Task: inverse folding
């Protein structure tokens, strides 16, 4: 569970900085030339794509971690059942 929380917090930090990079432009439209406007659009799209990629990878990683936790839990449950039943059969 700690790994899932760590992944979510890391994604929040990464996406926050990316969104701030995409939104926090200080240039007005009148100051920009055509080449600068194209570069600004590329920077904005890059920041947004990094943010969404971080969110997608976090979702995927959390699902993998959750699946492993469930497998461990199932293995532990089966092991406990086996031990409980084997002790019962040995005593009687």
Result:
């Amino acid at each position: 569970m700690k790994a899932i929380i760590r992944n979510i917090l890391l994604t929040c930090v990464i996406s926050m900085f990316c969104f701030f990079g995409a939104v926090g432009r200080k240039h007005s439209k009148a100051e920009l030339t055509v080449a600068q406007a194209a570069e600004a659009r590329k920077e904005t799209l890059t920041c947004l794509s990094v943010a969404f990629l971080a969110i997608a990878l976090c979702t995927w990683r959390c699902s993998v971690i959750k699946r492993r936790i469930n497998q461990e839990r199932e293995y532990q449950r089966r092991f406990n059942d086996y031990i409980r039943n084997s002790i019962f059969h040995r005593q009687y």
Notes: The chain is about 85% helix and 0% strand.
